[in-house]
Write a structure and sequence with these properties.
Blueprint (H helix, E strand, L loop, with lengths): L3 E6 L5 H7 L6 E6 L11 H12 L3 E3 L7 H4 L7 E7 L9 H18 E11 L21 H7 L2 E8 L7 H7 L9 E7 L10 E6 L2 E6 L20 H14 L4 E3 L6 E3 L19 E3 L1 E2 L4 H8 L3 E4 L29 E4 L7 H5 L9 E9 L11 E12 L3 H20 L13 E5 L6 E5 L12 E7 L10 E9 H9 L12 H5 L19 E9 L7 H12 L3 E11 L6 E9 L8 H19 L1 E3 L1
Parallel strand pairs: 1-2, 1-4, 2-3, 4-5, 8-14, 10-16
Antiparallel strand pairs: 5-7, 6-7, 8-9, 9-13, 11-15, 12-15, 16-17, 17-21, 18-19, 19-20, 20-21, 22-24, 22-25, 23-24
Bound molecules: S-adenosylmethionine.
Length: about 625
């Protein structure tokens, strides 16, 4: 096995290096460095004593190493350090926060040149300097060294933070720090490489309907959300785990029939199957235009093009989408969509009519459909433009209605309560978290969950699904139906205490490493306390055309690739003379899994100003 390679920079008198070297075994190579030249250490007897100890142990010691230019110091073959340590960086007595921030920024940027792919950068800081909530008390951000923002400049994210004396060092090393009051309350910050936050272009998708290929670009507000296969066979994504558990538990009480879900495309004709009670889904649907694609289709499916990804949809797989009752013709797309309008399915409820009309529909069995759905929505903590839904459809004889419905509700409530309390402490398990709240129509229920146990910031209940019993228009062959729709993403977030829904979509493999298939254990993010950047935007609106706030949020989502975590309305101003109206909003940028810098945010913000001008007929001020 290759040795573990450690690099210490900014050593003062090499006390840390000397103490650490005593704890290392043969499998670790240590390189200890300091900025000073040997002559500058001449008057420090402790330094010479430590250097002597290091030499005896054959440790590589280097002088005059500027940690902001590590690539100049280490040849290519000497790089790839597994751990780089900088304890208590400081530019010198008179340096203020700005200078020290600059030192950190340049150090992190330079680390990127010499750090192994899965390496760690450890930075110990005195109490309060880092500026993250891990500091007790937390220092005001503008007075701190803003360590997470400086690390982002080197493409690094904070993956762990703990008191300096606890985990990092042996007792011998502690002896070195114990005398120094500065180290009380100090924190060791561990940074790792982030996936790049590059402006990824929307992918082009192609689908085959009948013998014809069609292509469409991924909507910009959904970059990275299509065709991820979280619910499919090899996936060990928590969304799949929670779905399987939910279904397995219901299977103990009801006979189950699992249906294969079609691809999430819904042709315009297909939308007419929507019953009256969910028509408003469509106003928030993502519409896409399919274009006939006459390029050499089969060769592209071999993966030769990086930009094109195929939905290998056969016509039969889309069969749920066709509009039944029109001469039985499969007219969903074929022949009509040289430029057809199609939307990404906003809910699985669009499929209910097709499901209950299949000839072998079994009364008393739970019919189950699971798949991704897509809806334009405001930027809010628990509202997502793409999520996974599971739909349970139960049909029964009308005079059995009350008994069947009650049995379904009771079991579902028990199952959800038990899933939701798995990672909570015993004391929180005593009271029920799930409530079925009857709606004003006296028939449907919202499935609400008390969330204060999960996060102190959550004061409101969260709606994770609905039970629809009002679908009276859907009586078929003397049967009536109940539909239960569950948002699996919200359920998974609550079960594992994942605070940010965007984390479910990360491409970072470390996310999935948290989950043992089939098990529910507490989740720990690989990116802690990511920095926030706030920008305000104000603009004149065209009062005749109006202002579409949903579209404003959708453009913000697209331009920032989901890096905007909140949009807050600040004020409305009407000019006393011209009567022109201007609106002002505050945008907060923060990613949950990738390093994001002030500069990247500034360029997104200026792009955002251009896009709203183009698409929303407003004039930024
Ligand atoms: C507060 S002392 C900490 C020394 C030592 N790491 C410890 O924990 O005792 C700050 C150290 O940062 C070092 N330093 C400042 N700028 C540096 C740079 N550009 N490259 C390397 N070291 C630097 C200084 O030389 C000084 O030794």
């Amino acid at each position: 096995m290759a040795p573990r390679r450690l690099l210490l920079v900014g050593e003062g008198n090499f006390s840390f290096a000397a103490a650490l070297s005593e704890t290392l075994d043969q499998s670790t190579q240590l390189t200890a460095t300091c900025l000073q030249r040997p002559a500058e250490l001449a008057r420090d007897p402790l330094a010479w004593e430590n250097l002597q100890r290091l030499r005896e142990r054959g440790i590589d010691v280097r002088f005059g190493v500027d940690c902001t230019h590590l690539a100049d110091v280490f040849e290519l073959h000497e790089r790839e350090f597994d751990q780089i340590y900088f304890n208590f960086p400081h530019c010198g007595r008179k340096a203020g926060v700005a200078k020290n921030r600059e030192l950190l920024a340049k150090f992190f940027q330079s680390c990127a040149d010499v750090l192994a792919e899965e390496g760690e950068v450890h930075v110990a800081l005195c109490r309060g300097q880092g500026g993250t909530p891990a500091d007790k008390p937390q220092r005001e951000w503008h007075n701190s060294w803003q360590v997470v923002a400086m690390a982002a400049l080197g493409g690094l994210i904070l993956s762990d933070v703990y008191p300096f004396s606890c985990k990092a060092v042996s007792l011998k090393i502690l002896a070195y720090f114990n005398n120094d009051r500065l180290h009380i309350g100090a924190l060791n910050h561990v940074f790792t490489r982030s996936l790049p936050f590059e402006g990824s272009q929307p992918r082009i998708f192609r689908i085959k309907l009948g013998n014809q290929w069609f292509s469409f670009p991924e909507p910009e507000a959904l970059v990275g959300k299509l065709n991820r296969g979280f619910l499919e066979a090899p996936s060990c994504h928590p969304i799949k785990t929670i779905n399987e558990k939910l279904i397995a538990e219901l299977g103990k009480v009801f006979p189950l029939k699992r249906l294969k879900c079609s691809y999430p495309l819904l042709p315009q004709e297909g939308t007419s199957v929507l019953p009256f009670w969910n028509c408003d889904f469509l106003s928030a649907a993502f519409w896409i235009s399919l274009h006939e694609d006459n390029s050499n289709s089969e060769s592209l499916t071999g993966g030769t093009s990086q930009d094109v990804e195929d939905f290998l949809v056969s016509f039969s797989e889309l069969s749920l989408l066709k509009n039944p009752g029109r001469d039985g013709k499969e007219e969903a797309c074929e022949g009509t969509c040289g430029q057809a309008k199609i939307c990404l399915r906003p809910s699985l409820l669009v499929h209910v009519q097709d499901v209950i009309e299949v000839p072998d529909f079994l009364s008393g069995s739970l019919h189950i459909l699971s798949g991704p759905v897509f809806q334009k929505c405001h930027i809010l903590p628990f509202t997502m433009p793409a999520f996974h839904e599971t739909l349970f459809i139960l049909g029964f004889n009308q005079n059995l209605k009350d008994g069947c419905l009650q049995s379904l509700l009771d079991h579902l409530k028990g199952i959800l309560d038990s899933l939701l309390t798995q990672t909570l402490p015993e004391s929180s398990k005593l009271s029920s978290l799930v409530k079925f709240v009857l709606q004003s129509n006296g028939k449907d229920y919202m499935i609400r969950v008390k969330t204060h146990n999960f996060s102190p910031d959550c004061t409101e209940d969260l709606i994770i699904g609905s039970v629809i019993t009002s679908a009276t228009s859907v009586i078929h062959k003397d049967q009536c139906f109940v539909f239960v729709s569950m948002n699996l993403d919200l359920l998974a977030m609550l079960v594992w205490c994942i605070s940010d829904w965007r984390m479910l979509w990360t491409f970072d493999n470390r996310f999935l490493k948290n989950f043992v298939p089939g098990k529910i254990e507490p989740f720990k993010s690989h990116s802690l306390y990511p920095p926030c950047y706030v920008h305000d935007v104000s603009f004149w609106i065209d009062q005749k055309k109006g202002f579409d706030e949903l579209e404003f949020h959708t453009v913000a989502r697209a331009v920032s690739q989901d890096a905007i975590i909140s949009i807050q309305f600040l004020s409305r101003f009407q000019h006393p003379k011209t009567q022109q109206v201007s609106l002002c909003y505050r945008l907060t940028y923060q990613t949950c899994d990738k390093a994001l810098t002030q500069q990247q945010v500034a360029s997104m913000q200026s792009q955002f100003r251009k896009e709203i001008q183009q698409h929303l007929y407003v004039i930024p001020r």
